Amino acid sequence: MKAAFLVRYGKAESAFEIRECPLPEPGRGQVRIAVEMFGLNFADVLARCGLYKELPPLPAVLGYDVVGRIDAVGEDAGSLGLGMRVVAMTRFGGYATHALSTCKGVAAIPESYDAAKATALGTQYATAWYASMEMVRLNEGDHVLIYSAAGGVGTALVQLAKLQRCVVFGTTTSASKVEYLRAIGVDHVLVGHGPGLESAYRAASPSRPLDVVFDLLGGATVRQGLRLLGPGGRIVCCGVTDMMSRHPNIFHSLKTVLGFGLLHPVPLMLHSKGVIGMNMLRVADANQAMIRKCLTSVIARAVSGVLEPQVGGVFPIDRLAEAHEYLEQRRSTGKVAVHW
């Protein structure tokens, strides 16, 4: 089989090598998927730049979500069988022609369902479901703020919040993405993440604080989100894309970490606000049944047309570096996928 190995940190153009390697054999409770297409996630960009602590030692194969057909099954594979077309979540290893997944991280999809859209249903939509349906309860009429709303997880969060009949505020730093956000259902588009965003929110909603914030950026935006929350409000921290800069380095990463500020439970109690941290890899390690619940929930709604994943770009494997740069430079909207 072939796999795209991350062999060095840094620029995408020199970071990857396509190598031949042995086919992996599924163990108990695992299946092997012949990969049709795999998805990119911002965690991949962080890993390529040496900023993702979960990454195995180099050379390593990145990748968290694939679409393809099961071509080998281990013991205790349940109802999963050879030839089934599936979406699968992988704990690394997705940038390959064949990938392993635990059975809890695999779900069938129709033959006709678009492969690129299907890749979004793995990590990104499952993450959004867990954040919005398991970690908090969204209620009709809630005012919800989604930072970086045009990305893959952001798009999914917008759609899920609208299903709950929330009033959605979405942020972007790019004026070119304003129409995209309006098209996917954002009620109020806020451009920028600085002090002006607070004024823009209060102008749009002068008498109503936020109920829920989904923060995909990290750093100072967490403190900003807390200031905009009302009593009973919750902020879910599910990304640190602000770790990236034009020239990633330890000083910029440290600035992002320090930007979170010092959170103490006493002020949170006094103002009745909550801060929730999320790491889907940890959730998957500890609770595979929850991952399956999230995955099957979003697939069922996507197949029925209730959810509509958006695809920002599809690249062949020989343009993997270009796909990474496209995502890193935040030019994309929705999901970015790669096919063999």
Summary?
The chain is α/β, with parallel strands linked by helices. It has 2 domains: 2-119 and 309-339, Medium-chain alcohol dehydrogenases, catalytic domain (Quinone Oxidoreductase, Chain A, domain 1); 125-280, NAD(P)-binding Rossmann-like Domain (Rossmann fold, 3-Layer(aba) Sandwich), CATH 3.40.50.720.
Could you please describe the fold and organization of this structure?
By secondary structure, this protein is of the alpha/beta class. It folds into 2 domains: 2-119 and 309-339, Quinone Oxidoreductase, Chain A, domain 1; 125-280, 3-Layer(aba) Sandwich (Rossmann fold), CATH 3.40.50.720. 34% of the residues lie in helices and 26% in strands. The protein is built from 13 helices and 16 strands. The strands form 3 sheets. Strands 3, 5, 6, 7, 8, 15 and 16 form a 7-stranded mixed sheet that branches. Strands 11-10-9-12-13-14 form a 6-stranded parallel sheet, with helices on both faces. Strands 2-1-4 form a 3-stranded antiparallel sheet. Helix 8 links the parallel strand 12 (210-215) and strand 13 (229-237). The longest helix is centred in the last third of the chain and has 16 residues, at 288-303. It starts with a strand and ends with a strand. 48% of the residues are buried.
- CATH architecture grouping of the largest domain: 3-Layer(aba) Sandwich
Low-pLDDT residue intervals, each spanning 5 or more residues? 242-246
Q: What's the total helix number?
A: 13
The level-1 CATH class of the largest domain: Alpha Beta
| Number of β-strand runs | 16
Mean pLDDT equals 90
Helical percentage: 25-40%
Total domain modules: 2
Order of helices and strands: EHEEHEEEEEHHEHEHEHEHEHHEHHEHE
Structural Rg: 20 Å
Largest sheet: 7 strands, mixed
% residues in beta strands: 25-35%
Q: CATH superfamily of the largest domain, please? A: NAD(P)-binding Rossmann-like Domain
Rough shape?
globular
Instruction: Assign the CATH topology of the largest domain.
Output: Rossmann fold
Output the structural class.
alpha/beta
Instruction: Kindly report how far apart the N and C termini lie.
Output: 11 Å
